[in-house]
Amino acid sequence: RMLEKIDFQPEVINCNDWHSALIVNLVNKLSEEEQAYQRVATVFTIHNLAYQGIFDPSVVSSVGLDESDLLELEKEREGKINFMARGISFSDVVSTVSEEYAKEIQSKEYGAGLEELLADKRDRLFGILNGVDYQVFNPQTDSHIALNYDLHSLDHKGANKKALQRECSFEVGTDIPLMGMISRLTDQKGLDILVEAIRTVLELEVQFVVLGTGDFRYQDLLTHLAEEFPHNMKAFIKFDAALAQRIYAGCDMFLMPSRFEPCGLGQLISMAYGTIPIVRRTGGLADTVKDFDPRTGTGIGFVFQNYNAMHLLVAIVRALEHFRDEGTWRSLMERAMSCDFSWDSSAHKYEEIYKLAIELRKKGH
Q1: Which among 119, 141, 346, 360 is placed 20 to 30 Å from 207, CA to CA?
Q2: DSSP 8-state secondary structure symbol assigned to residue 171
Q3: From CA 185, how far away is CA 219, in angstroms rounded?
Q4: Digit-coded pLDDT (tens) for 29-40
Q5: How far apart, in Å, do the first and last CA atoms of the chain sit?
Q6: Cα distance between residue 209 and residue 201, in whole Å
Q7: What is the pLDDT of residues 154-182, one digit of tens each?
């Protein structure tokens, strides 16, 4: 009703995740009653399907919806209201934050119980990568790092590495591999296989710094490991945006062993800083990080497929082997920093799906 009060008629409303999904439901209901809403197209964007917003039916009555009017899926699940399912069901177009994730969520493995609903909407389901704000994440202008650098002054990255090593109380030296991770400390982000592998990694004379908060068990585990290996592991259990940028700039490698990853920004930011990602092939990581092939000299990271500690270790060891070859590693850094994951391309793709949503709404689909 606010739109009526301010006399505004949008062409498209783009809602994001379960938090705003009932708006899509409301527009659909109002379009059955009032002509003005019949022209309002809706796009629903899924950032993480695992968080669906499941509540008792009484919550929908407060926004003017009939709590007895349930989706078939809701009837089958004890009559609980599923906000995410409603956003998907009632929108004209559904988008998510990478092409690979759009495919994955139509499968039982990644669909979180909504795979059939999404598969039914496959012709209106699109994956569009999130973009990076290079005005914020730019080593050439970043005020939080020790020394600015760009593609043509990569040697200056070493000063950032040494500064980070000092901050972590590590031995200082550009020849010592330094690996970083900035993450929510949860199973989704691969913490279960990381903690299984980390002792072996630390025995390889690798320095490792992790920044993040999350599940208490992982916070405690990482804290204890850092106490056990004070010379080559540091755990910052907190949120610190400035420190995050120092980690992006100072590390040689950036770790993202995610169980699933709708898009992921860490790997995109790390590449902007010439820090090479080590990732699992899933979701947006699969779309953005191509595995390094020493035979052809192509690829910009180290990718593993199977979700287990052994395959993670193999990817890390591969990265360490190539780190010792200065020429190869510099080429990797240069290719990573040359990638463009700005919002420009993604913005055009959003414009296209908005046009499609408007067209579908006009046709009454």
Answers
A1: 141
A2: P
A3: 7
A4: 888 888 888 899
A5: 24
A6: 12
A7: 999 999 999 999 999 999 999 999 999 99
- How far is Cα 280 from Cα 193, in angstroms, rounded to an integer? 11
Strand pairing report for 41-46 and 54-55: unpaired
C-alpha to C-alpha distances, 310 to 207, 253, 259, 264, 305, nearest whole angstrom: 19, 18, 14, 23, 11
DSSP structure string for 274-319: TPEEEEESSHHHHHH-PBPBTTTTB-SBEEE-S-SHHHHHHHHHHH
Contacts of 327 (CB under 8 A, 6+ apart): none
Q: Is there a domain that residue 224 lies in?
A: yes
Q: How many CA atoms lie within 13 A of 83 on its CB side?
A: 24
What are the structure tokens assigned to 363, written together?
A: 């046709």
One domain for residues 165 and 108: no
Domain range enclosing 99: 2-131+345-363
- 7 and 64 in a single domain? The answer is yes
Task: Provide the token pair at 153.
Answer: 């002054």
Residue 143 belongs to a domain: no
What sign for the dihedral angle of Cα 292, 132, 269, 135?
positive
Q: Which two tokens stand for residue 98?
A: 């990478």
> Is 354 among the domain residues?
yes
Distance separating alpha carbons of residues 261 and 95, to the nearest angstrom: 15
Residues 92-124 pLDDT 10s:
999 999 999 999 999 999 999 999 999 999 999
pTM of the entire structure?
A: 0.93
**pLDDT at 195 (0 to 100):** 96
Residues 6+ apart with CB under 8 A from 164: 146, 178, 209, 246, 247, 249, 250, 251
Q: How far is CA 188 from the centre of its chain?
A: 11
Contact 85, 36 (CB under 8 A): no
- Domain check: are 62 and 180 in the same one? no
Please check whether residue 288 is in contact with residue 256, taking contact to mean a CB–CB distance below 8 angstroms: no
Sheet holding 276-280, edge to edge: 233-236, 207-211, 178-182, 253-256, 276-280, 302-304
Residue 136 placed within a domain: no
Euclidean distance between CA atoms 238 and 240, whole angstroms: 6
Query: Quick one: DSSP state of residue 145?
Result: S
